[in-house]
Design goal:
Length: 354
């Protein structure tokens, strides 16, 4: 309600950008922000194109209700997204400050994962009025119990695993299904559990090929069974147990993933004698329409972050805590990853594998 708004009731300019990898639910957040800040509050909402590039280059459009009509179920982001930040340029921070001044920006809402929120928090420390919304299919942002996009990715991966079961069973094959998750195994653990995986390999727990092969062999020995090994892209073997080439770096200095399943599958064939095939789900997990859960979480985040702007909670982000939307400092995201609960992983491993 405007009565609760502690910013001046004059029209204020609120910027919004989406940063990092896209993720289902981004448009639902943008829609909620526009409906509340523009539709109810009468404020100007400026949507910056292509993340920080749009800020630095002053590429934006004013978002009103007509611009966000019909975008709720759409995947991706109507604003476009990029990796990279003002800190990639020697004068990036100064240019960002200048743009805030020139456009009369009273606040900027950054919808992003660990990378974008870290940058947002650093800029907030420089005095810029920035608030955050956590997003990522990886579910690995510290400070929140969940990020939107994750549930959709898990559903997509689970559907794929269900389909792979029947074909693998018919051929008595081993399917090695690689899912996203570079530093945390959330998608692998949840989709693997929901899809009845034979084994799940996550970045948090280095694996041993011999042990995986034993689990697979035990399963096939029991009769007509297929086995599905779900592996997160960032999973790695115990040092000295399997040779894995040094990963190449992309232009942002991140390790390029997407090959661990190609190493695991032939090794499993060699150790078990079963034909092993690789399925890399890749960006399919990030595309398309969000689940209803993610649409609701995105909408809740979008509405709550407008309150954060009204209350000048700069430097903070909205989060989900025990079912409630709360706010925490974006600083908690700096160089940190929220990893899976190892007790739960061990319980799942002991009870369902083999
Ligand atoms: O956004 C997170 C994520 O989906 C990771 O799981 C994955 O490693 C990465 O993005 C891929 O990013 P890109 O599409 O830039 O290669």
């Amino acid at each position: 309600m405007l009565a609760e708004c502690s910013l001046s009731l004059d029209v204020v300019n609120i910027g919004v950008l989406t940063g990092g990898g896209d993720c289902p639910g981004l448009n639902a957040v943008i829609r909620a922000i526009v409906r509340k800040a523009h539709g109810v509050g009468g404020h100007r909402v400026l949507g910056f194109y292509d993340a920080w590039d749009g800020v630095l280059e002053k590429r934006y459009e004013e978002l009103d209700i007509t611009k966000v009509r019909g975008i709720l179920p759409k995947g991706g982001t109507i604003l476009g997204t990029r990796r990279g930040s003002p800190y990639d340029h020697a004068d990036g921070v100064e240019r960002t400050k200048k743009v805030f001044k020139e456009l009369g920006l009273d606040a900027l809402i950054v919808i992003g994962g660990n990378g974008s929120l870290t940058v947002a928090s650093m800029l907030a420390d420089e005095g810029l009025p920035i608030v955050g919304v956590p997003k990522t299919i990886d579910n690995d942002v510290v400070g929140t119990d969940a990020t939107f996009g994750f549930q959709t990715a898990v559903q997509i991966a689970t559907d794929a695993i269900d389909r792979l079961h029947t074909t693998a069973e018919s051929h008595d094959r081993v399917m090695v299904v690689e899912v996203m998750g570079r530093d945390a195994g959330w998608i692998a653990l949840h989709a693997g559990l929901a899809g009845g995986a034979t084994a799940i390999l996550v970045p948090e727990v280095p694996f041993e090929m011999k042990q995986v092969a034993e689990i697979v062999t035990r399963r096939h020995d029991r009769g007509r069974y297929a086995s599905l090994v779900v592996v997160a892209e960032g999973a790695r073997p115990k040092p000295g147990t399997l040779e894995v080439p040094e990963p190449k770096l992309d232009k942002y200095g991140r390790e390029m993933h997407g090959s661990i399943s190609q190493i695991i599958a032939p090794e499993l064939s060699r150790l078990t004698g079963f034909e092993s095939r690789v399925v890399q789900l890749g960006h399919v997990q990030r595309g398309g329409t969000p689940t209803s859960y993610d649409r609701v979480l995105s909408s809740r985040f979008g509405l709550a972050v407008v309150d954060a702007v009204y209350e000048k909670a700069f430097g903070e982000m909205v989060v989900l805590k025990c079912g409630q939307i709360e706010r925490v400092s974006m600083q908690v995201t700096r160089d940190k990853t929220r990893t899976i609960d190892l007790d739960f992983f061990n319980d799942v491993s002991a009870s369902f594998f083999g």
